[in-house]
Amino acid sequence: MKTRHKRLVLILGGLSLLGAAVMLVLSAFQQNLVFFHSPSDVSSGKVAVDQTFRIGGIVEDGSVRRQADGLSVSFVITDTAVGIPVTYSGSLPDLFREGKGAVAQGRLTSDGVFHASQVLAKHDENYMPPEAAHAVDKAQEAMRTMVMP
């Protein structure tokens, strides 16, 4: 085999390996990509069942129910227009409270309940996750336009 052919085979082999590496990285990235949705998005059917995503908003007052095992909790997260029931098994963040902002990551089941694998809470008095704040503002604006003639 001529050196020219050897060089061509080497270049093609290197490009093949590079292409395979890029495909593996993109595949891993796609599997770990988690989108944020508001409760209004979820209720309107914009999210597929059993798709992992984040839902955020305000923990509805009076909705937090702790189970007998001490670790399981259920609550409703709302953007002031729509509320989605959430269940979570594990210890909640210390700052998790009713009436405060929270983001939960998990999956929506066919019964309309969001099963969270992780719950994040605000970190001070004035903070709400930007996605949740935007979703709440959007829902409040939609409510104002429906009320006003």
From TrEMBL:
<keyword id="KW-1003">Cell membrane</keyword>
<protein>
    <recommendedName>
        <fullName>Cytochrome c-type biogenesis protein CcmE</fullName>
    </recommendedName>
</protein>
<keyword id="KW-0735">Signal-anchor</keyword>
<dbReference type="GO" id="GO:0017003">
    <property type="term" value="P:protein-heme linkage"/>
</dbReference>
<dbReference type="GO" id="GO:0005886">
    <property type="term" value="C:plasma membrane"/>
</dbReference>
<keyword id="KW-0349">Heme</keyword>
<keyword id="KW-0479">Metal-binding</keyword>
<feature type="topological domain" description="Cytoplasmic">
    <location>
        <begin position="1"/>
        <end position="7"/>
    </location>
</feature>
<feature type="topological domain" description="Extracellular">
    <location>
        <begin position="29"/>
        <end position="149"/>
    </location>
</feature>
<dbReference type="InterPro" id="IPR036127">
    <property type="entry name" value="CcmE-like_sf"/>
</dbReference>
<keyword id="KW-0201">Cytochrome c-type biogenesis</keyword>
<feature type="binding site" description="covalent">
    <location>
        <position position="123"/>
    </location>
    <ligand>
        <name>heme</name>
    </ligand>
</feature>
<keyword id="KW-1133">Transmembrane helix</keyword>
<dbReference type="InterPro" id="IPR012340">
    <property type="entry name" value="NA-bd_OB-fold"/>
</dbReference>
<comment type="function">
    <text>Heme chaperone required for the biogenesis of c-type cytochromes. Transiently binds heme delivered by CcmC and transfers the heme to apo-cytochromes in a process facilitated by CcmF and CcmH.</text>
</comment>
<comment type="similarity">
    <text>Belongs to the CcmE/CycJ family.</text>
</comment>
<keyword id="KW-0472">Membrane</keyword>
<dbReference type="GO" id="GO:0017004">
    <property type="term" value="P:cytochrome complex assembly"/>
</dbReference>
<feature type="binding site" description="axial binding residue">
    <location>
        <position position="127"/>
    </location>
    <ligand>
        <name>heme</name>
    </ligand>
</feature>
<dbReference type="GO" id="GO:0020037">
    <property type="term" value="F:heme binding"/>
</dbReference>
<dbReference type="GO" id="GO:0046872">
    <property type="term" value="F:metal ion binding"/>
</dbReference>
<keyword id="KW-0408">Iron</keyword>
<keyword id="KW-0812">Transmembrane</keyword>
<dbReference type="Pfam" id="PF03100">
    <property type="entry name" value="CcmE"/>
</dbReference>
<dbReference type="InterPro" id="IPR004329">
    <property type="entry name" value="CcmE"/>
</dbReference>
